Amino acid sequence: MKSQLPLFPESASSVAPQVDALFYAWTAVSIFFTALIAVLIIYFMARYRRRHEDEVGLPERAPVWLEIAWSVIPLLIALAMFAWGTQVFVQIYRPPADAVVYYGVGKQWMWKFQHPDGQREINTLHVPLGQAIQMKLTSEDVIHSFFVPAFRVKQDAVPGRYSSVWFRATRPGVYHLFCAEYCGGEHSRMIGSVVVLEPQQYEEWLAGGPAGQPLTASGAELFQQLTCQTCHGEGGSGAGMAGMAPRAPSLVGLYNRQVALADGRKVVADDSYIRESILNPMAKVTAGWQPIMPTFQGQVTEEQLTQLISYVKSLSGEGGAEAGGGTAEVGTAGGQMGTPAPQAGPQPQ
Amino acid sequence: MNTSATAESIVASPETGFERPNYLNAEYGLRSWLLTRDHKRIAILYLISVSAFFALGGLFAMLIRLELLTPEGDLMQPDTYNRVFTMHGVIMVFFFLIPAIPAVLGNFLVPIMIGARDLAFPRLNLASWYIYTLGGLFVLWAMVNGGVDTGWTFYTPYSTSFSNTHVVATALGVFITGFSTIFTGLNFVVTIHRMRAPGMTWFRLPLFIWSHYATSLIILLGTPVIAITLLLVAAERVLHLGIFDPRLGGDPVLFQHLFWFYSHPAVYIMILPSMGVISELVAAFSRKRVFGYKVVAFASIAIAVLGFLVWGHHMFVTGQSIYAATVFSVISMLVAIPSAVKVFNWTATLYEGSVSLQTPMLYALGFIGLFTLGGLTGTMVATLGIDVHLHDTYFIVAHFHYVMVGGTIMGYLGGLHYWWPKMTGRLYPAFLSRLSALLVFVGFNLTFFPQFILGYLGMPRRYWSYPEEFQVFNVLSSAGASVLGVGFILPLCYFIWSMRYGKRSGDNPWGAVGLEWDTPSPPPTENFYTVPVVTHGPYEYNTQEVHARTSHPEARVG
Questions:
Q1: C-alpha dihedral, B360 to B281 to B212 to B274, nearest 10°
Q2: CA distance B122 to chain A (A)
Q3: Among A2, A90, B129, B533, which residue carries the largest CB count within 10 Å?
C-alpha cells in the first residue's frame, strides 16, 4: 500500500484546470447545501423535541415566498452550473485548428495507436508536450472507452464509427490510460499509459522507433493495391481510366464536404462516412452514380481504414475542409460542433 | 377521519392475549398463503421473497468488496468477478430496489390508506407475485449454471455477440419480472382512481399514495420499453438479426437509448415510493402536516414526467451530438429541482413540530442526509464538463448508490419499522433498532463516500484489479461495507424475533393519524369493520385526538 493518501488527481492537460474549477465550485455548493440541511435538522431536532407524550406540532405556517425562494434559487444555481459545464464540454470536444490527428483502435483487450507519421504502438501512447492532439477512436469488437484521468478526457470507442476527443498535454510525465467502458473478461487489464514528452524528445523517440511512413503515404499505397483508381481515377481525381467515362465520383476536395445522396439525403463526408462507404458502399450512394462499388468488408483492417481515410483527407489539402468549416460535422460522431473555432481552448505558450 | 364504531367494541388488550380476528389468523396453512387474494398477505409474500433476493444481492456485494481490498485480483478470476458484479446489479435493481417498497409497503398500505377493502384486482395482484417468482427463478437458474457477465446494463454489442454467458436466460428473467411490476402499477392506478373511501378526495390522500401513483405511471409507461429492448437483445443473440451489432448492420448506441429510456425513470420507480414513506414518517414523528403538501404531491408528478426526458445523460461520452447532450443536461438540472424542494419541505416540517427520534424517524432523517448528497452529486454529473471525467468511474457508482440504495433502503427500512406494528401487531426492541439505523447510516457513508474520491481520482468502475494508489479508499469502502452488513442483519434478526416475542403494540403505538392507524393491528382481512368516511386532510394533529388514539403507554416503543 502506498503511504500517501491522494485526494486530487494529477492534472496534465490544458482542459484539466477548467474541469477542476467547475468540480470544486460544485463541491462547494454541495457542501453548503448539505451543511445547511444538516444544521437545520439537528437544530430543529433539539429545539422542537417532543416534551410530553401527547404534544403535537404547531399548525403549518407556509409563506409563499419561502417556497418560491427555495425553488428558484436552486434552479438558478443549477442553470448557471449547466451553462458553465456546457462551455467546458464544448472545449473538451471541439478541437483547435492546429490539432494533429492520432488514431486509436480498441479491441479486447488492448489499445492500438497510430501516429500521423505512421508509428504504431500498443497500450502506450507517446505524445509531444503542448501539441493539440485529436484522438479519433473506433473499436474492432465491443464498446471501449479511452480515458486519461490526468487529462480529464474520456471518449467511447464505438465499433462501426469514429468518435473523437482532443487534448493538449501541459506536463511531461507518464499517465494512466484506462478503458472505462466495461468490455468483458480482461476489462481491468485494458490499461496502458500516455507518455508526454518534450517536443524534442518526442522527435527523438519517433526517430528511434521502427521506420514508419506517414499514414497518408500508406493510404496512397493501399489505394493502388485495392485498385480504387480504376473507378475513382488516379489519385482519386475522378478521371475515367483509359478514355472511358468515369465510374465513380472524384475524391478530391471531398473530405468534410456535403454530399448529396441518391435517395435525396445530404450527409457530410467525414471519417465515419468514408469508412462506411468503403465497408458498406450501398448504404449511402452519391447522387448521380451507379451503385456498383464492391464492399471491402473483411479486406481491410481498422488500421488500414484509418490510412485510407488519411489519404482521402489529404486529397482535400491539409486538414480537409475542416479549416473552411461550414456546417461540416453537426450531429456526427464525436459530438463536434459545426464550425471549428481556431481559438477554442488555450493555446500553448 | 372517523374511526369505526365496531372496532371499538371488539377491544383486545395486550394483557388478555386475546387475538381479534385479523388477516394473519383468518386462515392457516401454506395453501391459505399461496392462494390468498388478500393484498396484505401478498405483501408478506413479497416481503419474504424481496428479502431473500436482498440477502443474495448483498452476498455478491460482500464478494465485490472483498476482492477490492487489494489492488491485485487475488480472490477470484476476472471472469468470476465480472459475473459477481453483474449478478449483484441484476438482483439488486430488478428484484430488490424496484419491487421493494411498492410491492411490500405499497401492497399492504395503498388500500388501507385510501379506505378500501383490497386492491382493484386481487387475482392480478397474486399473479404479479407468481410472475416475480418465475422471473426470479430464471435469473437464479442462470446464476447456478454459470451466471452472466454483461453488467446489469447489458450493453451491446458485448451482450449480443461477445459474452459467452447466460444472457438470454437472465434477460428473460428480467423481462418476465417486468410484468409483475406492470401488474402492481396497474392495480395501484385503478385502485387509487376508483376505490377511495367516501370523502377521500385527491388532496386528502396521504403523500405515500401520491408518490405511489406517480411511480405507477412511470411503471406503466416505461417498463414495456425495457421489455422490448431485452427481447431485441435476445433476438440478435439467438437469431443474429442485425439490431445492435454493427457487424450485422446494427447500431450499438441505439441499445443505450432504449435501455436508459426505461432505466433512468426506473431510478424514480425506486426513489419515489421511498419519498412517499419519508413524507409519512416526517409528518408522524413531527406530529405536523407535511410542509407544502400540494407542492410535495406535485413534485412527485413533476419528477415522474421529467424523468422520462433525461435518459441521454448516461451517454455524454458515447459521441452523441453536442446539441443533444446540452438538452439532456439542462433537463437533468430541471429534474433536480422538485427533489430539492422535497428535501426543503421535509426539513421545514420539523420546524415547530413535536419531534420524536424513534427508530423510523432516525431512518427518515438518514434518508434526507443520503438523498441530499446523492442528489447534489447527481447534478454534478449532469454537468457536461464534469461528467466527461467522472463518467464510468467510481464517482458514478457512489452517486447512484447514494440515490438508489441510500434513498430506497432508508425509506424501505424506515417504513418497515414504522408499519411493522401495523403489519404484525408486535413491537421490536427499541435500542437495537436505533442501533441498526445508526449502523446503516454510518456504514453506508463509510462504504460509499470514499468511492466519490476514488472516482474523482479516476478509478474506473467494474475493475477487478486496480493501480495501487487507489487502495486506501477501497479498504475504507470495504470496512464500511461490513458495518453496513451488520446494520442490515440486525433488523432481520429482531423482526423475526418480534413476530413471536415482541410486545404487543396496540393499534397505534406512534400516536399517528391516517386511516391505517384507525384500524386494528394487525388489520382484519377486510381492513375496516365499517367503511371509513373521511372528513379532513391527512396529517391533522391535535392534542386530544392524539391522546385518544395512542395505544396503551406500556406498549410504546422506546
A1: -50
A2: 38
A3: B129
Give yes or no for a contact between A306 and A215, defined as CB atoms under 8 angstroms apart. yes
The pLDDT of residue A345: 35
**A with B: how many residue pairs have Cβ under 8 Å apart?**
300
Name the closest residue on chain A to residue B467, using Cα atoms: A176
**Per-residue pLDDT at A210:** 65
CATH of range B36-555; options 1.20.210.10, 3.40.50.720, 2.40.50.140, 1.10.10.60 = 1.20.210.10
Q: Does A323 have pLDDT greater than 70?
A: no
Domain that holds residue A161: 100-208
CB < 8 Å to A181, chain B: 155, 392
CATH of the domain at A171: 2.60.40.420
Q: What is the mean pLDDT of chain A?
A: 85
Please report the pLDDT score of residue A243 as a whole number: 66
Taking only residues 212 to 241 of chain A, the set having a beta carbon closer than 8 angstroms to any beta carbon of chain B reads: none
Q: Are residues A128 and A85 in the same domain?
A: no
Q: Do A57 and B461 touch (CB under 8 A)?
A: no
pLDDT at A247 over 90: no
Mean of the pLDDT values across residues A11-31? Answer: 96
Number of structural domains in chain A: 3
The answer to whether A338 contacts chain B (CB < 8 Å) is no
Tell me how far apart the alpha carbons of residues A172 and A130 are, in angstroms, rounded to a whole number: 9
ipTM comes to 0.90
Question: How much is the pTM?
Answer: 0.88
Below-70 pLDDT ranges, chain B: 1-18, 551-558
Contacts B326 to A, Cβ<8 Å:
86
- Provide the grid cell at B213: 401513483
C-alpha–C-alpha distance, residues B90 and B174, integer Å? 8
Q: Which chain A residues have a beta carbon less than 8 Å from that of B344? A: 70
Tell me the C-alpha distance between B401 and A185, whole Å: 24
**C-alpha distance from B372 to closest chain A C-alpha (Å):** 6
pLDDT digits (tens, 9 = 90+) for A173-223: 999 999 999 999 999 999 999 999 999 999 988 887 666 678 888 888 888
- Domain edges within chain B: 36-555
Q: Which residues of A95-121 are buried (b: 16+ CB within 10 A; e: fewer)?
A: bbeebbbbbbbbbbbbbbbbbebbbeb
Chain B residues with CB inside 8 Å of A186's CB? 78
Q: Which residues contact B197 (CB under 8 A, 6 or more apart)?
A: B114, B115, B116, B515, B531, B532, B533, B534
- pLDDT for position B550: 73
Residue A50 lies in a domain: no
Instruction: Report the pLDDT value the prediction gives residue B48, as an integer from 0 to 100.
Output: 96
Residue A120 included in any domain: yes
Pick the residue with more confidence: B369 or A262? Answer: B369
Asked if the structure places residue A204 within a domain, the reply is yes
Q: Within the 534-553 window of chain B, which residues sit less than 8 Å (CB to CB) from chain A?
A: 541-543, 546-547, 550, 553
pLDDT of residue B551: 67
Q: Which is nearest to B120 in space by CA: B180, B179, B196, B178? A: B196
Residues of chain B with Cβ-Cβ distance to A279 below 8 Å are none
- From B252's Cα to the closest Cα of chain A, the distance in A is 8
> Do residues B109 and B44 lie in contact, with contact meaning Cβ atoms separated by under 8 Å?
no
The mean-pLDDT minimum among A37-51, A76-90, A108-122 falls in A108-122
Hey, are the CB atoms on B354 and A331 less than 8 Å from each other? no
d(CA A317, CA A326) in angstroms, rounded, equals 16
Which pLDDT tens digit goes with each residue over B387-439? 999 999 999 999 999 999 899 999 999 999 999 999 999 999 999 999 999 99
Rounded Cα distance, A240 and A251, in Å: 13
Q: Tell me if A180 and B158 make a contact (CB, 8 A cut-off).
A: no
